[in-house]
Amino acid sequence: MIGLVMGERGLISRILCPKFGGYLTFATLSVGEESAPDQPTLSNLLDIYNIKQIRADTKVYGVVGKPVGHSKGPILHGAAFRSVGYDAVYLPLLVDDFASFLHTYSSPDFAGFSVGMPHKEAALACSDEVDPIAKYIGAINTLIKRPSDGKLIGYNTDYTAAISAIEITLQGSSGKVSAGSPLADKVFVVLGAGGAGKALAYGAKEKGARVVIANRTYERAKELANLVGGQAIALADLENFHPEEGMILANTTSVGMHPNIHDTLLSKQTLKSYALVFDAIYNPVVTRLLREAEELGVTIVSGMEMFIRQAMGQFELFTGLPETTLIFSACKNININSFNICK
Questions:
Q1: Per-residue confidence (pLDDT) for residue 336, from 0 to 100
Q2: Does the annotation count 52 as an active-site position?
Q3: Which of 1, 44, 187, 220 is deepest in the core (most CB within 10 A)?
Q4: What is the reported pTM?
Q5: CA–CA separation, 72 and 68 (whole Å)
């Protein structure tokens, strides 16, 4: 039997063909020469998905999101799995309804997931057990299927990933390493009140920052602000929000993500009040928000720093192996040697 599904949602059927008894799959030699929608390239099947090593007992992991095609997770985790001989494959999974997805893919073969936008809060509701910090944040980015009983366990590795990337950059730009957090008593403005926004707000609060939540829907901003003991403002009011200089700005929305790379939430002039601007988006690596901040001399932190750090925590949860394995694979395979984490 040859069973294949067309389109982006069907990519999983092409890659898992050898796991579930398919006779063969198809690939194109190069991008632009596909004979069917979303046919993968031969090099991707071999180098990213390691298709020659996929067997019936190969574990399946993946990143669940919408959109998901931009994710570098398959490159990163696939290389890390391969480097330690871990029998697993990591897939991009375009999902509309998270609960329905889990119901459909309930087999033990599907061992864990990275959870992307917009499913981080829905995934929390679908978990059988939740790590206490993830429960407090109200969002998860990692879901593990416990082998002993099949229970779904939710975790959040976003908050430590983003906050550590910001802290290390601030310490480096100041030329000194302080005993406490460089975020202590800083005004920390979070754009967005979704799953990633909750993680950043919680992390900043834990470091002693004065958290401000700005969101298009003021009610959601207020809800998150109340959770972390912060202040809420409407996104429209942020242009005139200048309580002090040297603030920290963290964008956790999807505004500016590929393909809408020319979009931004704030005018360039507004960024002058900030000492550091962080953007959770990593495609493109330098968003318009970051580019304009850098042009003003503001220190910037790319979402790639957060992406690698949160994936380190996920890799350890997936495999039980040290997260440092993933760092080495990332710096070697994704051409990110210029980032702090590789240095």
A1: 58
A2: no
A3: 187
A4: 0.85
A5: 9
CB 138 within 8 A of CB 193: no
Confidence of residue 173 (pLDDT cuts 50, 70, 90): low
Report residue 233 as tokens: 């403002």
Residue 176: pLDDT over 60: no
Which of 159-168, 283-292, 319-328 shows the lowest per-residue confidence on average (mean pLDDT)? 319-328
CB 15 within 8 A of CB 61: no
The residue whose two tokens read 């389109």 is 7
Residue 175 has pLDDT above 60, yes or no: no
Range 311-326 average pLDDT = 88
> Are 249 and 276 in contact, with CB atoms under 8 Å apart?
yes
Contact 195, 117 (CB under 8 A): yes
Instruction: Find the catalytic residue in 52, 59, 66, 120.
Output: 120
Asked whether the beta carbons of 117 and 196 are under 8 A apart, the reply is yes
